[in-house]
UniProtKB/TrEMBL annotation:
This is Sulfate transport system permease protein CysT. Its main location: membrane. Pfam families: BPD_transp_1. It comes from Paludisphaera borealis. It is found in: Cell membrane. Signal peptide: none annotated. The lineage of its organism: Bacteria, Pseudomonadati, Planctomycetota, Planctomycetia, Isosphaerales. It comes from the Bacteria. Residues 63-267 form the ABC transmembrane type-1 domain. Belongs to the binding-protein-dependent transport system permease family. CysTW subfamily.
Length: 279
């Protein structure tokens, strides 16, 4: 028995080392090396060429449109996602489990199918689209359609980030505030919201990062109109097709760097929250 235990102890460190090495190798091959390869090729022509590639009018407009629509989407998602999580956790109603299941549907639906659904419902040939058109508004094949598509594909992020925190939240402080005469809105803003902020920011950051690279649904609803509805991912695809590889790489590098910075910031926020909770 003692010999077997010693043999097992000798094998455990080597098994752990092998597992770590395999995991890091897989991460490197699948994520790190492709990122490095694209980044090196993007900056290889030099800083001036890189700046010229992203400041070219069509590329610059595509980047601005991507970031602006993503920011608008995040602002809407923060409010609606937090409200939806609140309703799911704090209220009981018929069909609650079905609603809870449907929230994850955007994760499962192919993004191209999302675009087709939105065109079918809001497009000019639909009843809703015709009514909207008579009112002088336009959603599909215009910038509001891009925001709508981004809202759909990022719908679960804020909800799923806030929901677990609300479930585990101790309601004693809320009840104490209510006992002291605080109104529900005052209690939410001063007692509940400070606890929810890290999870809201996490959901918002993930939504924003996801929106920067959205292609499938946006290409269906945007109409691919330069200087109007062409976002950065659509621009990259078009430049690759037209043979402008350096322009596509430069814009791709900007999107990659932005997403990476957001994820690093979220990771730092989560570590800080974990340290705070531990104290």
């Amino acid at each position: 028995m003692a010999i077997g235990a010693r043999t097992l102890q000798r094998h455990r460190p080597s098994q752990g080392l092998t597992l770590r090495a395999t995991s890091l190798f897989y991460l490197g091959v699948m994520v790190v090396l492709p990122m490095l390869a694209m980044t090196i090729q993007a900056v290889q022509p030099g800083p001036r060429a890189f700046w010229e590639a992203i400041s070219e009018p069509y590329a610059w407009h595509a980047l601005k449109l991507t970031f602006v629509t993503a920011l608008i989407m995040v602002a809407v998602n923060v409010v609606t996602g937090t409200a939806t999580a609140w309703v799911l956790v704090r209220y009981q109603f018929p069909g609650r489990s079905l609603v809870n299941a449907l929230i994850d549907l955007p994760f499962a639906v192919p993004t191209v199918v999302t675009g087709v659904m939105l065109v079918a419902f809001y497009g000019p040939s639909s009843v809703v689209g015709a009514v909207i058109g008579k009112a002088g508004w336009k959603i599909i094949y215009d910038q509001p359609g891009i925001i709508l598509a981004l809202l759909f594909v990022t719908y679960p992020f804020v909800i799923r980030s806030v929901q677990p925190v609300l479930i585990e939240l101790d309601r004693a402080e809320e009840e104490a505030a209510a006992t002291l005469g605080a109104r529900p809105w005052t209690t939410f803003v001063r007692v509940t919201l400070p606890t929810l902020w890290p999870s809201i920011l996490t959901g918002a950051g993930l939504s924003f990062s996801r929106a920067l690279g959205e292609f499938g649904s946006v290409v269906m609803v945007a109409g691919n109109q330069p200087l109007l509805t062409k976002t950065a991912p659509i621009y990259v695809f078009g430049e690759i097709e037209s043979g402008n590889r350096s322009g596509a790489l430069a814009v791709s590098a900007v999107l990659l760097a932005s997403s990476l910075l957001i994820l690093v910031g979220l990771n730092a926020l989560q570590r800080r929250g974990g340290v705070h909770d531990g104290n």
